[in-house]
Write a structure and sequence with these properties.
Number of helices: 6
Shape: elongated
Largest sheet: 2 strands, antiparallel
Strand content: 5-15%
Radius of gyration: 21 Å
Low-confidence stretches: 53-86
């Protein structure tokens, strides 16, 4: 499978110029024999693997597609990506191509994609519950502080 600079930029939430700069500087390998840059899946995977040790757009991308590797951690509701970040990112590009009608898949691959979506939905539901639990605790803390403030004002 190959990806255009537009597809990569769209899913990573960066400009096409940023993707072209990665290509021009040798960070991302691409073929330009067709008159436009095309990036092979394995080259994109290698690029994302090299960048996975840093916080960046890939984490935002995974959060936006509900990657199974993204978990909310209370307190603070901080997000972190696990080692499956790269495969989840590539699955997102594949899903984008299938939904856009650019690519078709067989029944087995479609079943795998649906399973990934189910896992992502479950993960997002868990994240939402953690956030709601944290929200309740914060609201209780605010309420207690308001009461303490009022008692101090009336002394």
């Amino acid at each position: 499978m190959e990806f255009t600079t537009y597809e990569i930029a769209y899913r990573l939430n960066v400009s096409e110029e940023t993707v072209r700069r990665w290509i021009r500087t040798g960070q991302l390998k691409a073929d330009d024999t067709s008159g436009k840059y095309l990036v092979k899946e394995e080259d994109l995977q290698a690029f994302l693997n090299r960048r996975s040790s840093r916080t960046g757009k890939a984490v935002s991308w995974l959060a936006s597609i509900g990657g199974a590797g993204v978990r909310a951690a209370a307190p603070g509701v901080a997000f972190a990506a696990s080692n499956i970040a790269t495969s989840a990112a590539l699955s997102g590009l594949k899903l984008y191509k299938v939904l856009s009608g650019i690519e078709t898949v067989g029944a087995d691959e479609l079943s795998v994609m649906i399973d990934e979506i189910d896992k992502s939905m479950s993960s997002l539901q868990e994240n939402l519950q953690l956030i709601l639990d944290q929200k309740e605790k914060l609201e209780l803390g605010i309420s207690e502080l308001k009461e303490i403030r009022e008692k101090l004002l009336h002394q």
